[in-house]
Write a structure and sequence with these properties.
TIM Barrel, Rossmann fold, 3 domains, 17 strands, 38% helix
């Protein structure tokens, strides 16, 4: 059961020193209970209290780190069933599979694809996170060679084999990169646990005996001292996998079944031979509790939509997605091109910039920081008003980019055009269309 702020406060030093960045110990305790601060923030916490509170306040689904250094990814650590209840914290990760039965060219292509599968959207770098290295040949040397080659992808790794000898060779080749060891079953759990423990690596478990079998396996692994575990539901069709993912998440959160309180790994690549269906299934697991999602490849046409879906799902619903304040050139504008202004709410930016681009009229789009609020909401909140627009325009640098002084404002803000023109006395304020769809015909009449 989650600790309350008072429960946590009782074990804090109660010095109100402020070293944690919060004025009082009680306020710090409340922040911990709300998931807004970590115990490590208190430098005066006793070892006994730290151990007690860490165990008691741990999230019902353990956070597991795969990889090391810049390549490390964290999965799990979730607190809720639905993102709108609070938020999801650690985004799921994708992995393409490269196996040791492939010819060198095919393996190199997948490794290169993983390395280059990066996209920037709303100031975030979207990338897969993992590469899965699978043993098909059963030969430790061949597997180790492929692991060494796959490490050049710059991503954390999943080492896939049920043969401990193969995994042992792969771990040696992986060095200190802390890969996910996949997979421990009823037949090999002792040896796999021994290897994972020695490498200080997380271990995936899979059982052919349903959830009861998974619980027994995680118990065995936990008893051997391994804390970082990833669960494979063991199913290979979307209906059964989705059912198991929901059962696992609900059991961990609602029933406090500790043996199921771990992130998961799923395999859309093994559930269909159709690439588009694979992407659809992967999207389902982004929405419903897949932590590691293994794909046959990361072709951009299928990967980018999945990355964007993940970005949307793993964004705090209480904080609007926003783009960076600044001047965005669209279509190689010149010093005579139109100048438009809008808010930095990401949806507004993408809609407006898309229509401007579609007009084929090169333009300057000034995006003002409104704390992620839409145009009308920001105006009503006093964040997109003449008193704030004026200093933004003056400091943005747009006056050095254009010879004219004509600024187009959103049509819904027509009522403030006169006041804005008074504030920006050397600029002429022009009222643009109310709807983004009307931007192209509007710009075509701009001269």
């Amino acid at each position: 059961m989650a600790l309350t702020g008072i429960d946590i406060f009782k074990q804090l030093p109660k010095t109100n020193c402020g070293d944690c960045g919060v004025p009082t110990c009680l306020a710090f305790a409340m922040k911990i209970a709300a998931g807004q601060a970590e115990l490590a923030g208190c430098p005066h916490l006793s070892e006994e209290a730290a151990e007690s509170l860490s165990e008691a306040s741990a999230p019902p689904i353990r956070a597991v780190t795969i990889g090391s250094g810049d390549a490390a990814v964290k999965i799990g650590g979730e607190l809720v069933l639905y993102r709108h209840d609070k938020t999801f914290y650690n985004p799921c990760v994708f992995a393409a599979v490269v196996d040791d039965s492939m010819d060198a060219a095919a393996a190199d292509a997948l490794i290169k694809q993983t390395k280059e599968s990066h996209f920037n959207r709303i100031e975030q770098d979207l990338k897969p996170g993992l590469i899965a290295v699978k043993s098909v040949s059963g030969k430790p040397d061949a597997f180790a060679a492929l692991v060494a080659k796959a490490s050049s992808a710059g991503a954390a790794m999943v080492l896939m084999s049920e043969d401990p000898a193969v995994i042992e060779a792969g771990l040696k080749a992986a060095g200190d990169s802390v890969p996910l060891v996949y997979v421990a079953t009823e037949d090999n759990v002792d040896k796999m646990a021994e290897l994972a423990l020695a490498a200080k690596a997380p271990l995936a478990v899979k059982s052919g005996n349903g959830l009861d079998g998974i619980i027994e396996l995680t118990k065995k692994v936990m008893a051997k001292g391994i804390k970082d575990i990833v669960i494979d539901p063991g199913t290979r069709n979307p209906k059964d996998t989705l059912e198991k993912l929901v059962y696992i998440r609900r059991a961990a959160l609602l029933k406090k079944v500790r043996e199921l309180g771990y992130p998961t790994i799923v395999f859309p690549n093994e559930e269909t031979a159709d690439k588009m269906m694979e992407a659809l299934i992967a999207g389902l697991y982004v929405l419903k509790y897949g932590s590691v999602i293994v794909m046959s490849d990361l072709d951009a046409a299928r990967a980018l939509p999945l990355y964007v879906l993940r970005q949307n799902i793993y964004t705090d619903p209480q904080r609007p997605m926003q783009v960076k304040q600044g001047i965005y050139p669209i279509g190689n504008p010149t010093d005579a091109s139109p100048v438009m202004i809008t808010s930095n709410f990401s949806l507004t930016y993408f809609i407006v910039s898309g229509e401007v681009e579609g007009s084929r009229i090169p333009s300057w789009l000034c995006v003002m920081d409104t704390e992620g609020l839409s145009v009308m909401t920001a105006w009503a909140a006093g964040k997109f008003v003449p008193e704030k627009i004026t200093p933004f325009i003056k400091s943005s640098g747009i006056e050095e980019k254009v010879k004219h002084r004509r600024l187009v404002i959103p049509g819904y803000l027509a009522s403030m055009s006169g006041e804005l023109e008074d504030e920006l006395s050397d600029w002429k304020i022009e009222v643009g269309p109310r709807e983004a769809a009307d931007i192209p015909p509007f710009l075509k009449t701009w001269s």
